[in-house]
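Recall that a protein's primary structure is simply its ordered list of amino acids. Everything else, from secondary elements to tertiary packing, is in principle encoded there. The following example makes that idea concrete.
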Amino acid sequence: MTITSWVLNRISTDTEEHLIDRNNLSGEVVGGQYENVKIVDALRNMGVDVKLIRLKDFNIDTITEIPDLVFVRSTSYLDIPKLKVLESKGPVMLNPISCHVKCSNKWTHLELLSQAGVRIPTTDLITFSPEKGKKWDWQNGTMYQADLTSDDTPQSQSDNIKEIELSGKKLGWPLIIKPLWGTGGELVQLCHNVNDFINNAKKIMTRYNTPMVLAQEFINHKTKGVISAWMLGKEIYTAQLRTSKSDTDLFISNHSKDSFRITYDVTPELANLCRKTAEVLDAEITKMDILYDEKGYMICEVNAPGAFTGVDSVLGCDYGKIIAEYGIKRFYEKK
């Protein structure tokens, strides 16, 4: 029996696979083709009939055959409805779509973790007031175009300023501003006052066409960095400390640029935190960003499935092969 598999992503597949650089470990394109083709290569070497498919071009109504195993490498709210239909047809999905519904929006998964007793940085959702914008359907994991009518009464600019001031009083200045979704630390900034916050919020709202942004407590601990944990199932495969190249630079919570990585020893406390997080979010293949202060670890955000150039470059391994082997194991477990 030949196992069939799809690797679904949102990156263009126009470039022929054999031309994609398997040795580019710069991580400049987070969630880019490097990860996709490494999994595809490994599956083919294991005798799996695998296709690399761009989700933007994927039409659930025209498919005639359902694969045995699907690796969902990158999603947006636009993909979730058709992926739910695909999952209902029976393939093993990694990650399951329930995970992507929870993780596609940072506010959603942080709220779920907080409600489950998982420690996170204090985070606020700030809503500005354009006439139109995309809003999040928390229940179904999708976005919708919202006209701010009587149900969404616009706030005045003074109301927005008051909301930011209240958030600053609760979180403390400086604080982090970030989009509700996105990768690679795009538009994640450190804000020192209300004007900083408003200026950076405008950039986020323009880039993502939504009136909502996140304000998050800035954790500036002596570790001066972020711990990243790569999860397979409920266990940590490896963890790294990503920190600034300069001892004097502040390190913004999840910023991936201008940093270096070292292997981080996994403590029982860290392992338990990540295991609980994976359980809450139905996660199997993820990268979790963790902060640390004098009270211990906290989850900054969860990326499903997450880039892994950092794993290959630091450990010198083939993490795409390890993910492929995990997927085959899950297929046989279900069978």
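The longest helix spans residues 319-334. The domain at 123-217 is CATH 3.30.1490.20 (Dna Ligase; domain 1).
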